[in-house]
Design a protein that fits this description.
459 residues; mainly alpha; 75% helix; MFS_trans_sf; Sugar_transporter_CS; MFS_sugar_transport-like
């Protein structure tokens, strides 16, 4: 490594980085799977418990409210006690709450357990993404953080596949479906065992000997804390993300993240109902149209992961919001819109959303320093879920009141808010070290001051 290099930021991509990305992706996979499986489970759960519209809305929104609590609380906890312990503990909670869901006898029990499941899911966002971001080289940081979040869409698509094979389980199929996230939680838990603690976080807490051991474990005995720039030893404060110079960044993350997830979760949770309103019924709806929409979110992520390092974060976010606004507005603006155009509009929305939704974890991890990085991701997760929970709860009522086209127009308006906020607030952080993107000056001002050092000679 040269004198101008940075061991982590400038290291070549290694098998460790790839494994850590895969292990960290387990949380978003379970999130996408668990939030989508409820739409499939409701097919048998609704008649089994004779659910009211209010109960259906609460079941759909409970996990999103839980994510609000989990992200807001456990992001801060992760910054206080470390990434590694929380990286393991929240998978245990995910498995336990999923299994317990299979034994519910009343609607309130399902609502409670879906809420607790959401708490565990919300906790994993700041835990896994901050740990991963603090190990990744800057040239691959956006792409690998993004790939981790694209897996969310893979999990959502997998929920429909599991639902298809569970069709023959009869009126109690919902019990298996609600318990099924536990399978993926246990697999992820076993994979994460032995993951080292973030040396950046250890240094920020003054634990230099442990940071040195973590660096040597990952990069080799010839490296140590001397190969990293000094991390300021600063106490973690929950309120810091709401104070200058970070308040503007917190506002940006909260607005764009919320504007992305409100229509996304509404479409994912109620895709079968949306498509049914345009004449698509039965298996052709649930395992045809809905599955295709879910897969298109994954498809959109493929060019998105290339574009995030090619054109940058800012242009990708603004461009995708602009396309989404048009796609969601089309069904409401065309009189007597056909089912084909309606489906195509949802398809364009899915591809565009998939191409940029991963910026929800890229931006906050890049815009905040180590001592409050997980807190910032957690707050973005929490604030965004207020809107997504409200949207999911109100979606059945919007479908009745305004029809499918009107409901999507509401999504278009929300996306327009995200577009305007991104135009005025979105910075560019592509190719900039974490130390510079999280500095007190605006990230865009730092890029020219960040030379392109030689890569580390070994990692």
């Amino acid at each position: 490594m040269t004198s101008t290099g940075h061991l982590i930021d400038d290291a070549p991509l290694t098998s460790f980085h790839k494994k850590l990305t895969a292990f960290s992706s387990g949380g978003p996979f379970i999130d996408g799977f668990a939030l989508s499986i409820i739409g499939v489970a409701l097919i048998t759960l609704e008649p089994a418990m004779d659910l009211s519209a209010t109960e259906i809305g609460l079941i759909g929104a409970a996990s999103l409210i839980g994510i609000f609590v989990g992200g807001g609380v456990f992001g801060y906890v992760t910054d206080k006690i470390g990434r590694h312990f929380m990286y393991i503990a929240d998978l245990v909670a995910l498995a336990v709450f999923s299994v317990l869901s299979a034994f519910c006898g009343e609607a309130w029990q399902i609502i409670l357990l879906r809420f607790l499941l959401g708490v565990a899911i919300g906790a994993d966002y700041p835990i896994a993404t901050s740990l991963l971001a603090e190990f990744l080289p800057k040239r691959q940081r956006g792409r690998l953080l993004g790939a981790m979040f694209v897996v969310w869409a893979v999990g959502a698509a997998a929920a429909y596949v599991v639902g298809f094979f569970a069709r023959g389980l009869g009126p109690d199929a919902w019990r298996f479906l609600l318990a099924s996230p536990a399978i993926f939680a246990v697999i992820t838990l076993l994979a994460r065992m032995g993951t080292p603690e973030s040396p950046r976080w250890l240094m920020s807490k003054g634990r230099m000997a442990e940071a040195d051991a973590s660096i040597k474990l990952v990069y080799g005995e010839q490296y140590g804390v001397a190969d990293l720039p000094e991390e300021p030893v600063v106490s973690t404060s929950f309120l810091r993300v709401f104070q200058k110079p970070y308040l503007r960044r917190t506002i940006f993350v909260a607005i764009f993240w919320t504007a992305q997830v409100i229509p996304l979760f509404a479409v994912y949770t109620f895709a079968p109902d949306l498509l049914e309103s345009f004449g698509l019924y039965g298996d052709a709806n649930l395992y045809g149209g809905s599955l295709i929409i879910a897969i298109l979110f994954v498809v959109g992520g493929i060019p998105g992961l290339w574009l995030v390092e090619k054109i940058g974060r800012r242009k990708l976010l603004i461009g995708s919001f602009a396309i989404i606004v048009v796609a969601l507005a089309v069904p409401a603006l065309i009189p007597d819109v056909s089912a084909t155009i309606f489906f195509l509009a949802l398809a364009v929305f899915a591809i565009s959303s998939g191409a940029s939704s991963f910026l929800e974890v890229v931006y906050p991890n890049e815009l905040f320093p180590t001592e409050v990085r997980a807190t910032a991701v957690g707050m973005g997760t929490a604030i965004s879920r207020i809107g997504s929970a409200a949207g999911t709860y109100l979606m059945p009522m919007a479908l009745v009141t305004f029809g499918a086209g009107g409901a999507l127009m509401i999504g278009a308006v929300v996306s327009m808010v995200g577009l305007v906020a991104s135009l005025f607030l979105a910075p560019e952080t592509r190719g900039v070290s974490l130390a510079n993107t999280a500095s007190k000056s605006e990230p865009g001002e730092e890029k020219s001051a960040d030379p392109d050092p030689q890569p580390a000679s070994k990692a």
